[in-house]
Amino acid sequence: MMNDVNKKEYTRVLTIAGSDSGGGAGIQADLKTFSALGCYGMSAISALTAQNTVGVSGIHDVPTNFIIDQINAVFDDIGVDAVKTGMLHRPEVIQKTAQLLKNRGVSSLVVDPVMFAKSGDKLLRDEAISALKEELIPLATVLTPNIPEAEILLDRRLDSSKDLAQAAKDLCDLGPQAVVVKGGHLKDNVSDDWLFIKKTERIGVAVQLHCKRVDTNNLHGAGCSFSAAIASFLALGNTIEHAIKLSREFITGAITAGSQFKLGNGNGPIMHFYKFWKW
Q1: Does pTM top 0.85 for this prediction?
Q2: So what's the pLDDT on residue 25?
Q3: Who contacts 127 (Cβ-Cβ below 8 Å, separation ≥6)?
Q4: At what angle do helices 26-36 and 222-235 cross, to 10 degrees?
Q5: Residue in 51, 66, 163 with CA at minimum distance from that of residue 117
């Protein structure tokens, strides 16, 4: 029998997020992303959603203490190289999760401030926004809001690419090491993101990450998968900037491949395994 000392080790990534019964976003999208990028995925489910490509028809809360039990079970036995958080829609869940991650000394944390489903359905309670800003975001290695989420966090409108650059810098004042504001909601032919990193040679400068828009409605789960990809690449040892650039390449490929498929009657999913599946 091979000694344990000679066995290979997994790169372990934990997602703490909501479940999507349609399989396109949330926990399901995160686990697909981890697997596609060569990581061992683990999950703590924060809420159950009745959801498909058309919308969210119901949300069932998971008791806060049981969410914490799930997280501790993973840490106590398996261990974690990076964590990604998604749908944490109640203040007490955010507060207790943040405290646990702080106590565990998590060094790579990607916070996706999930507030809306792709269909527009609301996934975050209003009273949870303060807890998100004060408790969890300050712990983040990378914060990944889209434009509507960034607008809520900053309490102002963002209408242009210049606005996104400033938003990335201002959101860093909440405490994360880096912020990437996703530009997919801008109404033009590009989908540029803006990245601001506190500790970099480009002191005080936001970086524009160029990306051509893919003409498709199959974008369900793209945001979840992007943040999950960043967590994966951080766990694999990449710098923040390189992890984000690699994640954008992965998501662009997944969106492009997914645009060739038809699933459901609304916003279809991206194709996580485009590098492996044959069709």
Answers
A1: yes
A2: 96
A3: 91
A4: 40
A5: 51
